[in-house]
Structures are given as C-alpha cells and as structure tokens.
C-alpha cells in the first residue's frame, strides 16, 4: 500500500495544479487533494498526496518538509489513518 502524505501550512491560494507541480518531481502521484471549505470553496490550508512508490513518498518528506511555498514553511509527513467519528444527530429530542 502506498504511503499517503499530509501537507500542512499551505497558502490559502494553493491549487491542486500547484501541489502537483511541487510534488511530481519526486515520482508519479496517484492522488493529490487540496482540502477546501464546502461553503466558501477556499482552501483550508492543508491537503494530501500519494505516490505510486513508498521511496518517492519518503524522498518528498525529506526534501519538502519545512520548505518554503509562497512564503510559508510547509509541513510534509506521513498521514495518520482516518479515524472513525461517531454519527452526528441533528434531532431536537423529538
């Protein structure tokens, strides 16, 4: 299974194309996502990338963690597994 990377402290102006441009020199990407607010559509300042090879992912972490992207020091590390969250109820006790 490929290593999924968390990319944080991104500029709010970052696009998926810009992320692909920054991360593709290290290997073939299988996923590249910038997380955005569902109401405003604006970036939340983080995203995820996944490579075909684990070696490419490790190299990207080594080279890009702490690097500058449009004046911000980005954080690149291995993503934690998604946690199961309890289902939310919006009922008012009826």
Characterization of this structure:
The protein is α+β, with helices and mostly antiparallel strands and 94 residues long. The protein has one domain (4-78): RRM (RNA recognition motif) domain (Alpha-Beta Plaits, 2-Layer Sandwich). 20% of the residues lie in helices and 32% in strands. The chain has helices at 16-23, 54-64; strands spanning 4-8, 29-36, 43-51, 68-69, 72-73, 75-78. A four-stranded antiparallel beta sheet has the order 2-3-1-6, covered by helices on one side. A two-stranded antiparallel ribbon has the order 4-5. The longest helix is centred in the middle third of the chain and has 11 residues, at 54-64. It is globular.
Describe the structure using short key phrases.
single chain; 94 residues; alpha+beta; 4-stranded antiparallel beta sheet; 6 strands; 32% strand
């Amino acid at each position: 299974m490929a290593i999924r990377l968390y990319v944080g402290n991104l500029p709010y102006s970052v696009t998926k194309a810009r992320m692909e441009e920054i991360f593709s020199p290290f290997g073939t990407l299988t996923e590249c996502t910038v997380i955005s607010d569902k109401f405003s559509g604006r970036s939340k300042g983080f995203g995820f990338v996944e490579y075909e090879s684990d070696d490419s992912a490790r190299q990207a972490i080594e080279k890009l963690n702490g690097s500058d992207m449009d004046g911000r020091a980005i954080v690149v590390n291995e993503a934690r597994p998604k946690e199961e969250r309890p289902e939310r109820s919006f009922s008012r006790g009826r």
